[in-house]
UniProtKB/TrEMBL annotation:
Signal peptide: none
UniProt protein name: 2-nitropropane dioxygenase NPD
Pfam short name (any one): NMO
The keyword Oxidoreductase belongs to this UniProt entry's keyword annotation: yes
Gene Ontology molecular function terms on file: dioxygenase activity; nitronate monooxygenase activity
Keywords: Dioxygenase, Flavoprotein, FMN, Oxidoreductase
Native organism: Chlorobium phaeobacteroides (strain BS1)
Entries under InterPro entries matching the protein: Aldolase_TIM, NMO
Superkingdom field: Bacteria
Amino acid sequence: MKVDNFRLQLGNKEYIPIVIGGMGVNISTTELALAAEKLGGIGHISDAEVCYVCDQLFKTSYTSRKRKKYSYNAGNPDKSEEYFDLEEVAEAQKKYVEHTISQKSGNGAIFMNCMEKLTMRNSSDTLQVRLAAAMDAGIDGLTLAAGLNLRTLDLIKDHERFHDVKIGIIISSLRALTIFMKRAVKLERIPDYIIVEGPLAGGHLGFGPDDWKTHELHAIVNEVHKFLKTQNLNIPVIPAGGIFTGTDAVNFLKAGASAVQVATRFTITKESGLPDKVKQHYLNAEHEDIVVNTVSPTGYPMRMLRNSPVLNYTIKPNCEGLGYLLDNKGKCGYIESYYKALESSQKGQRMKITDQTCLCTGMARYDCWTCGDTTYRLKETTNRMSDGSWQLPSAEDIFRDYRFSEDNHIQKPPHKEKVKS
């Protein structure tokens, strides 16, 4: 049996049941999302650091203007005065979404991954603006991520597309879902889909520092199915995390899942936003190179490659230009760690910061090599070139392999040797 034997039904539309996850900052590019949409699936873009992303894509200057505005405060650990311009956040979000949506050419959909933990010094207002602007720009769906999203629906309940746009939530436990559903029921806005992200996913994990070790995706998905049945709710459930082959996906689909969300295998595609040199690091990684740490200022554990440059950061916080993880009081764990290390560092010795990292800068520079637990298997999916490097497959190569493969077989892309100049 193949993934192609199944379909995902959302409202009155039918999709190939393959969803590409929304990897930020701009790893899930417009081009990657469009590749899924063209083939009848669902592609995500991410609004992580959307102002910075627009600066890179469209040569806007949101980041430099913000940096200039707050340059007087660069040496101050107190960032409470530094706010994002909400009109500029809305403008950037619309620009990015419209740029993507305008290029749709298939029967699939483009969703946006919106993270609650991207607090941006003013968590409620900045999230509201990002969600509303994405809907204004025509996004097909909003995936609420990185948090319990207890009041997120309230932020957009008066928007004209509140009952039109598809809305889903990423959860890692039944408890998180039940908390979210209480508010959803009161607002009469049940989610259109539920993504259940398990412990093998990449990036931030929705578990405690060690809890991820004791959970298993199939078990969590089964709990969610049972809960929905007791509530007489027919909501598509989409497992995510560690689904490496089409056969892995079929096993979930046969057990009642409506689709699967996949991301790790798409990190090394030509369309992925990661620099090609970083993609080679992913392909060369062994299982022991993949670690879960607690260096993120969000408080969530993160899975990444152990040689990620961000793990050696001692850079000065760049909150003036970025500052996407500043909480509502203008604080961030990395700022505190940086100034403590600065104060205690000895003259002539290199400063060390081991407990936190500057995630804003790390993600913007592609120095934070977040990855799924199965990253070490990526070398199974493509061809080794004569110079020792790995061939980068297209997103279509990977999508079609998930869709049509059987018996855990992985179809590598057609071998194309580099032409020496």
